[in-house]
Amino acid sequence: MRPFCVVGSAGTVNTGVVDPLNEIANIAAEFDLWFHVDGAYGAPGCLDEGKKLLFAGLELADSVSLDPHKWLYVPVDAGCLLFKKDAAVRAAFSTEEADYIKTHGYTDEEAFAFWDYGVELSRRFRALKVWLTLQYYGSRRIAQAISEDIALAAYLGELVSNANDFELLAPVELSICCFRYAPQRGMSDVELDQLNEKIMETVQKGGRAYLSNATVNGKFALRACITNFRTTKSDIDETIAAVREAAQNLK
Ligand SMILES: Cc1ncc(COP(=O)(O)O)c(C=O)c1O
Are the beta carbons of 150 and 16 closer than 8 angstroms? Predict the structure, then answer.
């Protein structure tokens, strides 16, 4: 049983925190391990000037998973893997055995076949929408939208921290804010978990805002993940209002 790979997170699903990628990269290099970074949600956050340092070491990854359908605003689904060197990937996934997947008589570029780099054989042309989005908006416009999402999550974090009836459950690092409704009358953690779960259901069914959930240090958290370029400050205010309203109606 020999480890061969170490995986760091560039934006966790629950709270959006980023691992110390440089430190992990050093360990991977020391022990000759493949260094993969899961940036499915969070990697585009590195486009924000204020967050660049957080992602130091991302460039050392051997591979990065990225879901452009999350924070690059591309329609579902468009999951992709970015590889630094393709030889190892090709060695793992390509096969010379089947005639019908061989490419004949083309230059290297023309003969590129995605099936040599992953498990899918028949596959849709997912790259088109990613390419089109990048071509049409450009990285500067996308970076601006990402920075706006980050600022909105921070704004929600401030609203929550400054309110007497809310509790921030994790630092807001990227565009995710985890919080709970916690009125001051002494409720236990179990009661707060139950109340917040009901609040989430009510808000989701209400259709004004959408919150998912996460467990943070054992507590049920309402999780706002802002990955829409159309979200505004008033949507954030509306979300807080919807949570308060749901809580009032549940009393
Ligand atoms: C950080 C992270 N990694 C991996 C995944 C899984 O990606 P996919 O749904 O594209 O398989 C998700 C979310 O779905 C995610 O947020």
Answer: no
